[in-house]
Amino acid sequence: MQAKWKRNTVVATMAVLVCAAVGLNWKYSQQPTEEKNIQQTGTKILGEAALVSGEEHEVQEGDSVNEETVYTGSDYFASARLTRQQARDTALSMLQEAAAQEDASEKAADEAAAGIQVLASYTLKESQIENLVTAKGYRDCVAFMGEDGVSVVVSTDSGELTGEDVAKIKDIAISETGCDASGIKIMAAN
Question: How confident is the model at residue 116 (pLDDT cuts 50, 70, 90)?
Answer without folding.
Answer: confident
